[in-house]
Amino acid sequence: MAPREIGGRPVTHVAAHPVRSVIRALGRLWLVPVTLVAWEIATRSAAQPFFPPPSAILARMHEIWFSGPAAHLLLTDKALGDFGPSLARLFGGWLAAAVLGVLIGIAIGCSSRLADYLDPLIELGRAVPPPLLVPFFLALLKLGTPAQLATIVFGVIWPILLNTVDGTRGVDRQHLETARIFGFSAAQRLRQVILPAAMPKIFAGLRLALSLALILLVIAEIFGGTGGIGYQLLYAQRSYLYPDMWGCLVMLGLLGYLLNSAFLLLERRVLAWHRGARQTN
Question: Which residues cross the membrane (predicted)?
Answer without folding.
Answer: 94-115, 135-161, 208-234, 246-266
